[in-house]
Amino acid sequence: MAMPKPEPQALKAFEALVEAAPGATVKPMFGNFGAFANGQMFAGVFGDSVFVRLGVEDRTAALKLPGAKLFEPMKGRPMREYVELPPAVFKEDKGATLWGSRALLFVLGMPPKSAKKKAAPARKGR
User: Fold this and answer.
1) Is residue 7 part of a domain?
2) Alpha-carbon distances of 94 from 97, 111, 120, rounded to whole Å
3) Which of 27, 31, 33, 72 is the most buried (most CB within 10 A)?
4) In this predicted model, what pLDDT tens digit does every residue of 86-122 receive, in sequence order?
5) Is there a domain that residue 2 lies in?
6) Is residue 10 part of a domain?
7) pTM of the model
């Protein structure tokens, strides 16, 4: 599957969302970007989509926004805690701040995720 490159408009919206999340770390992911706090991803950009990770109540509210949907990077495989936000959210003055803050608070309430240890190289037999 070819991974889409971040679209300029989505990248701008993602950057606005991350600016509203103090202490966030941005990392490249599959040619796109994810925003992390405590080792947990809370937002990302994927092609022309910007998505956030939300708790049940906030996710329910976000999915009521016209054009919002569960984030589905691969057809038929939605990421259940992530909502793809409609572009209209980022045209509002506080849209990025609102959803970025809610996503950040959600992951800050989770246990920190530790970095994965790299596997030791395979040893050849004698």
Assistant:
1) no
2) 5, 28, 47
3) 33
4) 988 888 778 888 898 999 999 999 988 776 666 556 6
5) no
6) no
7) 0.83
